[in-house]
Amino acid sequence: MALRPQEWSLARQLFALQIAVVTVVVAAGLGAAVVQAEHSTEENAATRALAIARGVAATPDVRAALSLPDPTSVLQADAEAVRRATGTDFVVVMNTDGIRYSHPDTTQIGGKFLGHIDAGLRGEDLTETYTGTLGPSVRAVVPIRADGRVLGLVSVGIKRSAIDRSLQGQLPLLALAGGLALLVAAGGTGLVTRRLRRQTHDLGPRELSRMYAYYDAVLHAVHEGLLLLDDKGRVQLVNDEARRLLGLPADVVGLPVADLPLGASLSKGEDQTDELHLTGDRVLVVNQRRAAGGSVVTLRDHTDLQALTGELDSVRGFAESLRSAAHEAANRLHTVVSLIGLGRVTDALEFATGELALSQQLADRVVEAVEEPVLVALLLGKVAQASERGVELVLDPEAAVPPGVADPRDLVTIVGNLIDNAVDAAVAAPPPRRVEVAAWVVGEELVLEVADSGTGLDAEQVEQAFARGWSTKTDERLIGRGLGLALVGQAVHRHGGTIDVTGDAGAVFTVRLPTRARVTTS
To answer: Any transmembrane segments, and where (predicted)?
Structure first.
């Protein structure tokens, strides 16, 4: 494992890389510090030599000694005293021709000074590095002036070997500083790596790349919408299905969830389990769970399922109507049989024909007024259901619905839910309990009207009537009510229709839908 870095975890690879980078940086910094220290030491030596040379050149005894027949007798002792006192390597006093009057090596006295003196002869100070009789040195050359004339020159120098020794004395401190910097950097890198290992679960780059590929594939493949929200209610992730179900734009990430469809519900951050919600033309099942740093929302499309459920409810209603009709027919049959058994055949015949005529009259009225077969079946079933609950369901005598004017499934949704809510409202009100249904075509619009004898709706209830979850029922056993009217509003909206509600003496719901002929021509 140690010899195969490509198999290391991401944290371990980054740690090794960071250590290498830090080592290179510290080494480069240490080298730069050594070069800087060398340059600084050399500059300090030159500055020091220049200051000493100026001091010697300004000494009156030195100027006076240059006028003596034998300047060396005075200058050699003075120069050596200065050299020893200042710790320099040589103090040389010379004439304008560069002939030495003093030197640490007395054999060099009287010889020509090795170095540049032209600047000194012009009255200027000079510092340089030059190789003389004592080897390479950093030296300063200063003129000795009197009455505006240059009488001689003073050169003070420090050998390079002495400068190097001074620099070597600084190297342990520089090395210690570099080592401490490397240690601190390694410690900080170790802490960062430890945190990274926890966050990446000590996985390697290949594993992380493979996980991302799987994660991305799953997000695009699942048939459920997925939203990830942070703790401030902003969208952090959204998959393709969620974009489709909610009609979201491409740049939705980072937007507040309150700005999205269903945002009012999702922004609360509360847990939801299989909650039904409506958006423009869809019925969605929403689940929301709080998670670390935010919440996870899943969406399932139940639009088609809800339509099928509505049809199933209608079929179930038809079955209940048939059961009720069968039970009632059995009662009437028993009555007829009992009358015949009592020898009252005429009474039995009158009772039977009367009941038959009444049922046939109702069926004939519905069939004559409503030519859409699905709506006929729905109304006959609802009449039986309402009768069983003590509510009279009446079809307006002027009602007329030709076949094919609207989608039968949407007619079942709209009329069925409106009648169910009207019957519930009538049952909750004092007798007489009555529901009236009217339907007719005006121009290119189908008008559906359902009125009940309930207590009606106030202005606030009318405004809320088609919001998901609204209901006038308070029975705790009826949790989940309020979807029926929302489905009615959705179906009407989908077809570009309108719906009006009045609630003075009982509620009256009036729906206007464009007929199929109008939709086709437009």
So the answer is: 171-192
